[in-house]
Write a structure and sequence with these properties.
The chain is α/β, with parallel strands linked by helices. The chain is built from 16 helices and 13 strands. The longest helix is centred in the middle third of the chain and has 22 residues, at about 205-225.
């Protein structure tokens, strides 16, 4: 099983699915910023601009001649995007449902009404028999769900031929599903914004998608302006400690993961930005060698402020007590960032809010 999938399972989808003055280039297969061909881009400003052609991680295109009416999402990431786009009433099922407290208050009620087709990966037979006309895949790129991927661990995933036979179009969130195979690191949220715009084009909600992306750019752009005077080599080093993935061996977020973009935009330096991929198991000795200035206590939302505070305290106490970490600079100075896993490692509009929160913590004199 791939390390990114291990992390996603162990941290209840703390991976899964992928900005600011995003200006950065995308490695999308079609060469544009969205991985959507000109047919979709040409009508991106308004609803119902079809046909829309969406490329997968390898460049193969899926064509939509009208908006889908029955959508299944693989997890809470794409579900939240659809709810924000105003297309939530078309979602007929999801896998990896959002846990209690993980959705914003205004989205919690509609999210709770979505039928749960699988507490983790949706079983192949249930997915193919769901009656969906669109499946949005946050997880694996191309055939990655087969043997050794997420699907290999929990039963085989449908083939593209089986999806087609069932009348289900199959598309991916590029920021997560395609992350491990992208050419370079994610250093801005352009891929996340592109996913939102791509879903907007497919569902006929492009105007709302543009609005959401613009809001993300405004927030992260303000942070970038505030920290721009800090030289790159003087920015604080930062370790995302995925407490829920287990403490025996830490799971690092690498340069291709969404969290790397969040950390970078916040004016910090991910200490494992140079590891190839999106997630990777490392040794505590590796963390000690990095001796980060700040450590984010990455725990998943427990459903209440009190339970979240308890989890953050437990993560911090582990680092204070564990022989390998108690001498780290960040631990000695109490430089802990208490922000949950979901809004850091899972692609979505709230990534921009996390950029602001991290920046306010590590650059308190610059970002108010």
């Amino acid at each position: 099983m791939r390390s990114r999938v291990l992390c996603g399972l162990a941290a209840a989808v703390a991976l899964l699915a992928t900005g600011c003055g995003s200006g950065g280039s995308s490695d999308g297969p079609s060469g544009d910023a969205t991985g959507t061909t000109a047919a979709a881009a040409g009508g991106a400003g308004g609803a119902g601009a079809y046909p829309v052609k969406v490329a997968d991680c390898g460049g193969a295109e899926t064509t939509f001649t009208s908006a889908p009416k029955r959508i299944v999402t693989s997890n809470a990431s794409s579900l939240e995007m659809l709810l924000r786009l105003g297309a939530g009433d078309r979602v007929i099922g999801t896998g990896f449902p959002p846990g209690k407290g993980t959705m914003p208050d205004d989205l919690a009620a509609p999210a709770a009404k979505v039928p749960v087709l699988g507490q983790m990966v949706i079983a192949k037979e249930k997915l193919l028999g769901s009656g969906a006309d669109l499946y949005i895949d946050t997880f694996a790129a191309m055939n990655g769900m087969g043997g050794g991927g997420m699907g290999g661990a929990m039963g085989s995933a449908p083939t593209e031929q089986e999806f087609a036979a069932a009348g289900i179009k199959h598309i991916y969130l590029h920021s997560t599903a395609c992350a491990a195979t992208r050419k370079g690191p994610q250093e801005d949220l352009s891929e996340v914004e592109a996913d939102i715009k791509r879903l907007g084009a497919v569902t006929g909600t492009s105007a709302k998608a543009d609005e959401l992306a613009a809001g993300m750019e405004q927030k992260t752009g303000a942070v970038q302006a505030a920290v721009k005077a800090v030289p790159a080599d003087r920015r604080p080093t930062y370790f995302f400690f995925d407490f829920d993935a287990g403490t025996k061996q830490p799971m690092a977020v690498c340069g291709k993961q969404v969290a790397n973009a969040v950390i970078t935009l916040a004016g910090a330096r991910n200490v494992f930005a140079d590891c190839d991929g999106d997630f990777k198991p490392v040794a505590w000795e590796d963390v000690v060698a990095k001796n980060p200035d700040w450590i984010q206590l990455g725990v998943r939302n427990r459903g209440s402020e009190a339970e979240n505070a308890k989890a953050f305290d437990e993560a911090a106490q582990f680092l204070r007590d564990f022989p390998a970490t108690k001498g780290l600079k960040a631990v000695q100075e109490g430089h802990f960032v208490r922000i949950g896993s979901e809004v850091t490692t899972i692609a979505g509009v709230r990534n921009a809010d996390t950029v602001q929160q991290i920046a306010r913590t590590v650059h308190p004199d610059l970002v108010k």
